[in-house]
Amino acid sequence: WPQYDEKMCEATTFTIGVQVNGKVRTSVTVEADESAESLQKRVLELPEITKWTQGTEIAKFVYIPKKIISIVTK
Prior knowledge:
It contains three helices and four strands. By secondary structure, it is of the alpha+beta class. The protein is elongated.
């Protein structure tokens, strides 16, 4: 049987949903090794997210790797 490398089978990018106050507003493609800080900066600059967070204070930014991003505003 042919040999294979399991690392070659792993996904390097993921498309995950971004929700603001519990409602999914958009989705983004995330690199598997991207840091939470750079992802937060990138997501908060998206026009779809800026529309819902403009003029409000970000109370919480939750990133669950490979699952979802949740933003809670005050």
